[in-house]
Amino acid sequence: MSTQPAAPGAAPLSSAPPAKLSTALPTELARPIATTLAAFEASRAAGADEDVHMVAAVVDCVVSALSAPGALVADPFAGFGTTLARAAALGRRTFGVELLPERVELVRRLVPSAQVIEGDARELLRLARTATPTVDAGSVDLILTSPPYMTANNHPADPLTAYEHDTGDYARYLAELGLVAAQCARLVRPGGFVVWNVADILHHGHTTHLIVDCGKVLDRHFTRVGVTEIAWNVYPHDLVADALLVFQRQ
Ligand SMILES: C[S@@+](CC[C@H](N)C(=O)[O-])C[C@H]1O[C@@H](n2cnc3c(N)ncnc32)[C@H](O)[C@@H]1O
Fold this sequence. Notes:
Layout: E1 33-35, H1 37-43, H2 56-66, E2 72-75, H3 82-89, E3 93-98, H4 101-110, E4 115-118, H5 124-130, E5 140-145, H6 170-187, E6 188-203, E7 206-208, H7 210-219, E8 223-232, E9 239-248
Helix pairs in contact: 2-3, 6-7
S-adenosylmethionine (SAM) is lined by residues 51-52, 54, 77, 79-83, 97-100, 103, 120-122, 146, 148, 160, 162.
Protein backbone atom coordinates (compact mmCIF):
# COMPACT_ATOMS: atom_id res chain seq x y z
CA MET A 1 0.00 0.00 0.00
CA SER A 2 1.55 3.24 -1.07
CA THR A 3 -0.54 5.50 1.13
CA GLN A 4 0.08 6.93 4.58
CA PRO A 5 -1.24 4.78 7.43
CA ALA A 6 -4.52 5.92 8.90
CA ALA A 7 -4.34 7.94 12.07
CA PRO A 8 -5.73 6.45 15.28
CA GLY A 9 -9.43 7.20 15.50
CA ALA A 10 -11.51 9.59 17.51
CA ALA A 11 -15.02 8.83 18.70
CA PRO A 12 -17.47 7.67 15.99
CA LEU A 13 -19.57 10.39 14.41
CA SER A 14 -23.13 9.36 14.89
CA SER A 15 -25.90 11.91 14.99
CA ALA A 16 -25.46 15.69 14.99
CA PRO A 17 -23.16 17.38 12.47
CA PRO A 18 -19.72 17.94 13.95
CA ALA A 19 -19.35 21.33 15.59
CA LYS A 20 -15.79 21.63 14.34
CA LEU A 21 -13.55 19.91 11.83
CA SER A 22 -12.48 16.35 12.63
CA THR A 23 -8.77 15.93 13.04
CA ALA A 24 -8.81 12.14 12.91
CA LEU A 25 -10.75 9.38 11.26
CA PRO A 26 -13.69 7.94 13.20
CA THR A 27 -12.95 4.57 14.78
CA GLU A 28 -14.65 2.57 12.01
CA LEU A 29 -12.34 4.08 9.39
CA ALA A 30 -9.17 4.33 11.46
CA ARG A 31 -8.03 0.81 10.60
CA PRO A 32 -8.05 -1.14 7.34
CA ILE A 33 -11.45 -2.50 6.30
CA ALA A 34 -11.04 -6.18 5.49
CA THR A 35 -13.02 -7.60 2.59
CA THR A 36 -12.97 -10.65 0.38
CA LEU A 37 -13.48 -11.26 -3.29
CA ALA A 38 -16.29 -13.65 -2.38
CA ALA A 39 -18.11 -10.96 -0.36
CA PHE A 40 -17.74 -8.51 -3.23
CA GLU A 41 -19.05 -10.97 -5.81
CA ALA A 42 -22.00 -11.84 -3.57
CA SER A 43 -22.97 -8.17 -3.09
CA ARG A 44 -22.28 -6.94 -6.63
CA ALA A 45 -25.34 -5.66 -8.50
CA ALA A 46 -26.61 -7.97 -11.23
CA GLY A 47 -25.06 -6.95 -14.54
CA ALA A 48 -22.28 -4.91 -12.93
CA ASP A 49 -19.13 -5.17 -14.99
CA GLU A 50 -15.56 -5.46 -13.89
CA ASP A 51 -14.83 -1.75 -13.48
CA VAL A 52 -17.06 -1.73 -10.39
CA HIS A 53 -15.43 -2.74 -7.11
CA MET A 54 -17.56 -0.99 -4.50
CA VAL A 55 -18.38 -3.45 -1.71
CA ALA A 56 -21.72 -3.06 0.09
CA ALA A 57 -20.13 -3.59 3.53
CA VAL A 58 -17.59 -0.82 2.86
CA VAL A 59 -20.41 1.56 1.92
CA ASP A 60 -22.26 0.62 5.11
CA CYS A 61 -19.17 1.37 7.15
CA VAL A 62 -18.61 4.83 5.59
CA VAL A 63 -22.27 5.88 5.59
CA SER A 64 -22.75 4.83 9.23
CA ALA A 65 -19.53 6.50 10.37
CA LEU A 66 -19.91 9.81 8.54
CA SER A 67 -23.64 10.56 8.31
CA ALA A 68 -26.76 10.34 10.41
CA PRO A 69 -30.17 8.85 9.55
CA GLY A 70 -32.04 11.32 7.34
CA ALA A 71 -28.80 12.80 5.97
CA LEU A 72 -28.41 13.44 2.23
CA VAL A 73 -25.81 11.14 0.64
CA ALA A 74 -24.67 11.73 -2.96
CA ASP A 75 -22.69 9.80 -5.57
CA PRO A 76 -21.69 11.70 -8.75
CA PHE A 77 -20.54 8.44 -10.43
CA ALA A 78 -23.52 6.33 -9.36
CA GLY A 79 -22.71 3.29 -11.52
CA PHE A 80 -24.79 0.30 -10.49
CA GLY A 81 -25.99 2.11 -7.40
CA THR A 82 -24.14 0.36 -4.58
CA THR A 83 -23.67 3.61 -2.64
CA LEU A 84 -27.22 4.81 -3.20
CA ALA A 85 -28.80 1.43 -2.44
CA ARG A 86 -26.94 0.95 0.82
CA ALA A 87 -27.40 4.58 1.91
CA ALA A 88 -31.15 4.31 1.27
CA ALA A 89 -31.28 1.02 3.18
CA LEU A 90 -29.62 2.81 6.10
CA GLY A 91 -32.29 5.52 6.12
CA ARG A 92 -30.43 8.27 4.25
CA ARG A 93 -31.82 10.39 1.43
CA THR A 94 -29.88 9.86 -1.79
CA PHE A 95 -28.89 11.73 -4.93
CA GLY A 96 -26.79 10.43 -7.80
CA VAL A 97 -25.51 11.26 -11.28
CA GLU A 98 -24.64 8.62 -13.87
CA LEU A 99 -23.65 9.03 -17.51
CA LEU A 100 -25.01 5.79 -18.96
CA PRO A 101 -28.80 5.73 -19.38
CA GLU A 102 -29.09 1.96 -18.91
CA ARG A 103 -27.35 2.26 -15.53
CA VAL A 104 -29.61 5.16 -14.55
CA GLU A 105 -32.63 2.98 -15.31
CA LEU A 106 -31.16 0.09 -13.33
CA VAL A 107 -30.49 2.27 -10.26
CA ARG A 108 -33.98 3.77 -10.45
CA ARG A 109 -35.41 0.25 -10.42
CA LEU A 110 -33.11 -0.93 -7.62
CA VAL A 111 -33.52 2.17 -5.45
CA PRO A 112 -36.94 3.72 -6.15
CA SER A 113 -36.41 6.37 -3.47
CA ALA A 114 -33.14 7.59 -5.03
CA GLN A 115 -32.91 10.76 -7.07
CA VAL A 116 -30.75 9.69 -10.02
CA ILE A 117 -30.02 12.14 -12.83
CA GLU A 118 -28.65 11.02 -16.18
CA GLY A 119 -25.73 13.25 -17.06
CA ASP A 120 -22.06 14.13 -16.78
CA ALA A 121 -20.52 14.53 -13.32
CA ARG A 122 -18.41 17.35 -14.73
CA GLU A 123 -21.70 19.28 -14.65
CA LEU A 124 -22.61 18.14 -11.15
CA LEU A 125 -23.87 21.47 -9.78
CA ARG A 126 -26.06 22.20 -12.79
CA LEU A 127 -27.54 18.69 -12.67
CA ALA A 128 -28.16 18.92 -8.93
CA ARG A 129 -30.28 22.00 -9.53
CA THR A 130 -32.48 20.00 -11.94
CA ALA A 131 -33.29 17.35 -9.32
CA THR A 132 -36.74 17.24 -7.73
CA PRO A 133 -36.53 18.40 -5.04
CA THR A 134 -33.53 20.55 -5.95
CA VAL A 135 -30.20 19.56 -4.43
CA ASP A 136 -28.76 22.92 -3.49
CA ALA A 137 -25.14 23.87 -2.97
CA GLY A 138 -24.20 23.20 0.63
CA SER A 139 -27.05 20.74 1.21
CA VAL A 140 -25.29 17.37 0.93
CA ASP A 141 -23.99 15.73 4.11
CA LEU A 142 -21.79 13.03 2.57
CA ILE A 143 -20.46 12.33 -0.91
CA LEU A 144 -19.25 8.76 -1.32
CA THR A 145 -18.10 7.87 -4.80
CA SER A 146 -15.73 5.87 -6.92
CA PRO A 147 -14.76 7.49 -10.23
CA PRO A 148 -14.09 5.43 -13.34
CA TYR A 149 -10.42 4.43 -13.27
CA MET A 150 -7.65 5.01 -15.78
CA THR A 151 -4.07 3.86 -16.14
CA ALA A 152 -1.31 6.30 -17.04
CA ASN A 153 -0.05 4.04 -19.84
CA ASN A 154 -1.71 2.21 -22.73
CA HIS A 155 -5.16 3.63 -22.05
CA PRO A 156 -6.75 5.27 -25.10
CA ALA A 157 -10.33 4.97 -23.76
CA ASP A 158 -11.52 8.06 -21.92
CA PRO A 159 -13.00 7.05 -18.52
CA LEU A 160 -15.14 10.17 -18.26
CA THR A 161 -17.00 9.17 -21.42
CA ALA A 162 -17.65 5.77 -19.78
CA TYR A 163 -14.79 4.46 -21.99
CA GLU A 164 -16.88 5.14 -25.12
CA HIS A 165 -14.39 7.50 -26.82
CA ASP A 166 -10.69 7.02 -27.42
CA THR A 167 -9.76 10.47 -26.21
CA GLY A 168 -8.04 9.29 -23.03
CA ASP A 169 -5.21 11.35 -21.59
CA TYR A 170 -4.07 10.78 -18.01
CA ALA A 171 -3.21 14.41 -17.20
CA ARG A 172 -6.55 15.62 -18.57
CA TYR A 173 -8.36 12.83 -16.72
CA LEU A 174 -6.91 14.03 -13.42
CA ALA A 175 -7.70 17.66 -14.28
CA GLU A 176 -11.31 16.72 -15.06
CA LEU A 177 -11.63 14.76 -11.82
CA GLY A 178 -10.54 18.06 -10.26
CA LEU A 179 -13.54 19.75 -11.91
CA VAL A 180 -15.82 17.17 -10.31
CA ALA A 181 -14.05 17.58 -6.95
CA ALA A 182 -14.50 21.37 -7.09
CA GLN A 183 -18.25 20.87 -7.57
CA CYS A 184 -18.36 18.28 -4.77
CA ALA A 185 -16.80 20.97 -2.58
CA ARG A 186 -19.69 23.31 -3.42
CA LEU A 187 -22.39 20.66 -3.01
CA VAL A 188 -21.36 19.35 0.38
CA ARG A 189 -22.20 21.41 3.46
CA PRO A 190 -19.51 22.92 5.66
CA GLY A 191 -18.42 20.13 8.01
CA GLY A 192 -19.75 17.49 5.59
CA PHE A 193 -17.58 14.66 4.29
CA VAL A 194 -16.33 13.62 0.86
CA VAL A 195 -14.99 10.08 0.43
CA TRP A 196 -13.49 8.84 -2.85
CA ASN A 197 -12.67 5.18 -3.34
CA VAL A 198 -9.67 4.82 -5.65
CA ALA A 199 -7.19 2.04 -6.37
CA ASP A 200 -3.68 1.60 -7.70
CA ILE A 201 -3.60 -0.45 -10.90
CA LEU A 202 -0.92 -2.71 -12.33
CA HIS A 203 -1.23 -2.69 -16.11
CA HIS A 204 1.29 -3.94 -18.68
CA GLY A 205 3.99 -4.03 -16.00
CA HIS A 206 3.44 -0.42 -14.90
CA THR A 207 1.68 0.69 -11.72
CA THR A 208 -0.58 3.73 -11.89
CA HIS A 209 -0.66 5.38 -8.46
CA LEU A 210 -4.23 6.63 -8.62
CA ILE A 211 -4.48 6.80 -4.82
CA VAL A 212 -1.69 9.36 -4.56
CA ASP A 213 -2.59 11.15 -7.81
CA CYS A 214 -6.30 11.53 -6.96
CA GLY A 215 -5.34 12.48 -3.41
CA LYS A 216 -3.33 15.43 -4.74
CA VAL A 217 -6.28 16.55 -6.87
CA LEU A 218 -8.72 16.31 -3.96
CA ASP A 219 -6.35 18.00 -1.50
CA ARG A 220 -6.87 21.23 -3.48
CA HIS A 221 -10.55 21.31 -2.54
CA PHE A 222 -10.97 19.82 0.93
CA THR A 223 -9.25 19.18 4.22
CA ARG A 224 -7.90 15.66 4.33
CA VAL A 225 -9.02 13.64 7.35
CA GLY A 226 -7.21 10.42 6.46
CA VAL A 227 -6.82 7.40 4.21
CA THR A 228 -8.44 4.06 4.99
CA GLU A 229 -7.02 0.97 3.34
CA ILE A 230 -9.44 -1.57 1.91
CA ALA A 231 -7.65 -4.85 2.59
CA TRP A 232 -8.70 -7.56 0.13
CA ASN A 233 -7.84 -11.23 0.62
CA VAL A 234 -7.35 -11.29 -3.17
CA TYR A 235 -7.43 -8.07 -5.19
CA PRO A 236 -10.00 -7.96 -7.98
CA HIS A 237 -8.67 -7.69 -11.55
CA ASP A 238 -5.47 -5.66 -11.82
CA LEU A 239 -5.75 -3.71 -8.55
CA VAL A 240 -2.68 -3.67 -6.30
CA ALA A 241 -3.89 -1.30 -3.55
CA ASP A 242 -7.33 0.04 -2.68
CA ALA A 243 -8.25 2.96 -0.44
CA LEU A 244 -10.86 5.39 0.79
CA LEU A 245 -9.64 9.00 0.66
CA VAL A 246 -11.57 10.80 3.40
CA PHE A 247 -11.99 14.59 3.31
CA GLN A 248 -14.06 17.18 5.07
CA ARG A 249 -15.27 20.54 3.84
CA GLN A 250 -14.23 23.47 5.99
C1 LIG B 1 -16.43 2.86 -10.84
S1 LIG B 1 -18.03 3.05 -11.49
C2 LIG B 1 -18.91 3.47 -10.04
C3 LIG B 1 -19.34 2.28 -9.31
C4 LIG B 1 -20.39 2.54 -8.25
N1 LIG B 1 -19.76 3.13 -7.10
C5 LIG B 1 -21.04 1.22 -7.91
O1 LIG B 1 -20.69 0.63 -6.92
O2 LIG B 1 -21.85 0.76 -8.69
C6 LIG B 1 -17.97 4.58 -12.32
C7 LIG B 1 -19.27 4.97 -13.00
O3 LIG B 1 -19.11 6.30 -13.49
C8 LIG B 1 -19.82 6.40 -14.71
N2 LIG B 1 -19.27 7.56 -15.43
C9 LIG B 1 -18.20 7.61 -16.26
N3 LIG B 1 -17.99 8.86 -16.69
C10 LIG B 1 -18.96 9.63 -16.10
C11 LIG B 1 -19.24 11.00 -16.14
N4 LIG B 1 -18.52 11.86 -16.88
N5 LIG B 1 -20.29 11.45 -15.40
C12 LIG B 1 -21.04 10.59 -14.66
N6 LIG B 1 -20.82 9.27 -14.60
C13 LIG B 1 -19.77 8.79 -15.30
C14 LIG B 1 -19.61 5.07 -15.39
O4 LIG B 1 -20.61 4.82 -16.35
C15 LIG B 1 -19.64 4.12 -14.20
O5 LIG B 1 -20.94 3.60 -14.05
